[in-house]
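Is this the right way to post structure tokens for a design question? Let me know if I should format differently. Anyway, here goes:
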């Protein structure tokens, strides 16, 4: 093992900020998620809305990327992207995904799994209209996940679409929202001596079953 690998292997941290018990957690995982997200916002942790999205390709190779949550309610978790991107194409072939939030400062992780669907055209239109102008032009300018010859391609495209649409770029037909409809949640709270708290919620019919998992 190299000295660099050895130094990484020696990293240790004792998690002692909080605990997660069945009696203190919400029976509804969405309410528990809302509570934790609001606490992350109040704690001003960096990028509390950032989440990892994991998808699987047709050849069963998983891939991950970071996106920003843009909404959540009893229907699911929403984010927006280019439908022709790598993740968009993978979701078209396999409409199941996993999400993960990691709020390091709070020693917390939330994992969510379920089926993914596109949000309505009306929802995508409304959110797109709320974006800053540069972001709306950017949605037209970037052929997301495609190989390009250089950054000049993006700059040229931005100038082209900026001149074409001026202050009112419409939503591109290839851009919109995805909603993950959860059938499984897990809430992880770091604890001392690696005896972490893990509460899992799985959907059984119309009801959520809460279970404790060994760390």
């Amino acid at each position: 093992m190299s000295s660099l690998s050895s130094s990484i292997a020696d990293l240790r941290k004792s998690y002692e900020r909080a605990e997660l018990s069945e009696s203190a957690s919400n029976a509804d995982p969405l309410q528990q998620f809302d509570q934790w997200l609001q606490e992350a916002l109040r704690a001003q942790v960096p990028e509390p809305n950032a989440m990892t999205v994991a998808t699987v390709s047709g050849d069963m190779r998983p891939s991950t990327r970071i996106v920003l949550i843009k909404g959540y309610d009893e229907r699911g978790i929403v984010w927006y992207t280019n439908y022709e991107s790598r993740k968009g194409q993978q979701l078209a072939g396999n409409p199941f995904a996993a999400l993960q939030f990691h709020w390091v400062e709070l020693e917390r992780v939330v994992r969510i799994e379920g089926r993914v669907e596109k949000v309505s055209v009306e929802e995508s239109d409304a959110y797109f209209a709320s974006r800053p102008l540069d972001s709306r032009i950017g949605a037209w300018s970037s052929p997301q996940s495609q190989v390009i010859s250089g950054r000049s391609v993006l700059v040229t495209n931005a100038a082209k679409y900026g001149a074409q649409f001026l202050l009112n770029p419409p939503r591109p037909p290839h851009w919109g929202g995805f909603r993950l409809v959860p059938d499984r949640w897990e809430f992880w709270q770091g604890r001392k001596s690696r005896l972490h708290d893990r509460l899992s919620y799985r959907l059984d019919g119309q009801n959520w079953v809460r279970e404790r998992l060994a760390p």
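Format looks fine. Someone answered above. Worth noting: The chain has six helices and nine strands. The chain has one domain: 17-132+173-212.
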